Task: inverse folding
């Protein structure tokens, strides 16, 4: 992860501990946005997408589009 990644990692772990899946979508999307490697970006996008599907959130559509653009959908 890029600069500030430590805090984002800490936030992700805390959200997992609270089972706050809505917040995890945001955190994983943020992590994907700052990833410096395509594989890492897609890793985080996949988790954001999974939680968005589980919760039925509309952000699943742009997340899926991002993964599809990398051939990862």
Result:
């Amino acid at each position: 992860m890029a600069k500030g990644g430590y805090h984002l990692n800490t936030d992700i772990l805390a959200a997992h501990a609270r089972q706050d899946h809505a917040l995890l979508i945001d955190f994983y999307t943020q992590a994907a946005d700052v990833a410096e490697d395509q594989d890492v970006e897609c890793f985080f996008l996949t988790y954001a997408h999974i939680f968005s599907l589980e919760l039925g959130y509309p952000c699943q559509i742009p997340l899926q589009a991002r993964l599809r653009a990398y051939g990862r959908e």
About this structure: The first helix runs from residue 5 to 18. The radius of gyration is 12 Å.
